[in-house]
């Protein structure tokens, strides 16, 4: 091998070594960048997990409130039904009272009419 070939080969190895060192440096920089990205993603995931847990808790409370509301509505429905039945009974009693009052008025009117007729005759 000639001196010139030897220098070219040596230069090739030096260039390759320099390229390898540059590639390693670039890989390290990418690794640091990826580490930062991964750290940010972990923070975001942690915040999303906290938010999800908060939402799940709120949904649980909302479900409890909904159950209580439904129970109250069932109670209200029962009371409204009782009130409607009571109203129906009251209507019946009022009709009976109207009939009795009309009968009483008829009796009083006949009594007054009879008195007038006796007094006129």
How would you explain this protein's 3D organization?
With 121 residues, this protein is mainly alpha-helical. It has one helix and no strands. It has one helix at 3-120. It is rod-shaped.
What's the helix and strand layout?
Blueprint: H1 3-120
Short description:
This protein has 121 residues and is an all-alpha fold. It has one helix and no strands.
Summary tags:
mainly alpha, 121 residues, single chain
Distance between the termini: 170 Å
The sequence of SSEs as H and E is H
Task: Determine the number of helices (DSSP H or I, runs of at least 4 residues).
Answer: 1
Class inferred from helices and paired strands: mainly alpha
């Amino acid at each position: 091998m000639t001196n010139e070939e030897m220098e070219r080969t040596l230069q090739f190895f030096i260039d390759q070594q320099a390229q390898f060192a540059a590639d390693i440096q670039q890989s390290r920089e990418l690794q640091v960048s990826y580490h930062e990205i991964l750290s940010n993603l972990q923070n975001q995931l942690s915040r999303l997990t906290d938010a999800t847990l908060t939402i799940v808790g709120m949904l649980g409370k909302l479900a409890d409130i909904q159950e209580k509301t439904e129970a109250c509505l069932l109670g209200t429905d029962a009371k409204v039904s009782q009130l409607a039945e009571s109203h129906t009974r009251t209507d019946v009693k009022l009709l009976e009272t109207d009939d009795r009052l009309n009968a009483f008025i008829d009796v009083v009117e006949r009594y007054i009419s009879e008195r007038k007729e006796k007094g006129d005759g």
